[in-house]
# Entry
Amino acid sequence: MTAPRKRARGSGRVFQRGNRWWIAYYARTEAGAQEVREPAADTEREAYGVLADRVASLRDGTYIGLAARRRTVTELIAAHESYLRDERGITDLMRWRSHAVPLGEALGLLRVDQLTLARMQGYIAARRTVGREPTTIAREMQILRAALRTAWKRGELPRVPYVPVPTDNGPRQGFVEIETFDRILERLPAGAYQHVAAFGYLTGWRRGEIVGLTWANIFRESQEIRLYESKNGHGRVVPMLLGIAAAIDARIAARRPDCPSVFHDDGVPIGDGFTRAWNAACRAAGVPDLLFHDLRRSAVRNLIRAGVSKVVAKTISGHRSDMVFDRYDITSTEDQADALARVAAYHEQRRAARTVVPFAAGDVA
# Structure
């Protein structure tokens, strides 16, 4: 029988149980420093390698506890969806789920400690191989990162592992001219769905912010709509004027005492049904690839074209930074044509205004 290897104090130990080799080491947990024992490998050599990794992670602060490592990617994604639905109040998760499904199918059975950078990069490569767009892959990896971050916020992970998110093809450039929007509006079901779209086109609010409004957000005496929390963590206030007032008045007429939501479908809060109705209306209007989020770009563009200052426009749309706001201020060929027409008119105006004509050489006495 060989003598056990000598290990430095605090570096843990390796022992055998049956046909498996186990490791034991001390780690600091919520209950304080305690010994952690876990099965490691089929051979003693491999077990020492696992132990070395655990000790190194303890020293550099990247250690993930045994309970956290046992959680699978599927469990993390499910917990994040519950967080979005129960704590963020987001009910329209159909598009989110469509991006989460491939993650679950490919990585769902992996535990957190098995979610290595190489495996995540392999997933990205596999998705590219089957022809998925960079934007789609980026959204999927963002969901994975958000699920890990939610677990970290709840104290279930000591850190958020690095998640590679491939760069997409740049921000979307979609926006909706008023004529196109009117065609879409006509093809949406009458009532709440049309009111949600009209509200979004006027204000540039995110769909979740609109459908999440309750009557506690509506102040009729001061004619204000107050959003207390948004994606960027800041609230905002918009006055109920003109088109916004018309949409809210219509919702007041359809108000149900058994439903706190401003925008509801016969007493049921707006959910995944809106996405299906929106996609169908866009197809019928001849713009099948248009997203509801494109209304946000359209609202920003319309506010600026209408002469609203950037400072005021940002308070309506809810943008915090000039960089993101400017990205949403899309310029079209019509804008460029209008600018060139204005320059040409300016040149003609300058020519017509010239009243001083230089003398010819022979005219000088």
About this structure: The two ends are 126 Å apart (CA to CA). The CA atoms of residues 74 and 108 lie 4 Å apart. The longest strand covers residues 20-29. The mean pLDDT is 79.
